[in-house]
Design a protein that fits this description.
Layout lengths: L2 H13 L2 H8 L3 H5 L4 E4 L2 E4 L6
Antiparallel strand pairs: 1-2
C-alpha cells in the first residue's frame, strides 16, 4: 500500500462508507473498493485488522 492509498484508506475508515469517500476524494468507487483492508456490508464498510499488512 503506497501513501496515496493509505490516505484513501484513512478517509474510508473515517467515513465508514466507500461511495461517500469516493465522492469526497473525487476518485471512482471501484478504485477505492480495490484497496485492501476492509470488508463491505450492506450499510457501509468496516475495517478488518487481518487484511491490513
Amino acid at each position: 500500500m503506497d501513501l496515496l492509498q493509505l490516505k484513501y484508506f484513512k478517509v474510508v475508515a473515517e467515513q465508514e462508507h466507500i461511495t461517500k469517500s469516493a465522492k469526497l476524494l473525487m476518485v471512482s468507487q471501484p478504485y477505492l473498493s480495490a484497496i485492501p483492508g476492509w470488508k463491505k456490508k450492506w450499510a457501509g464498510s468496516f475495517l478488518t485488522a487481518t487484511d491490513v499488512t
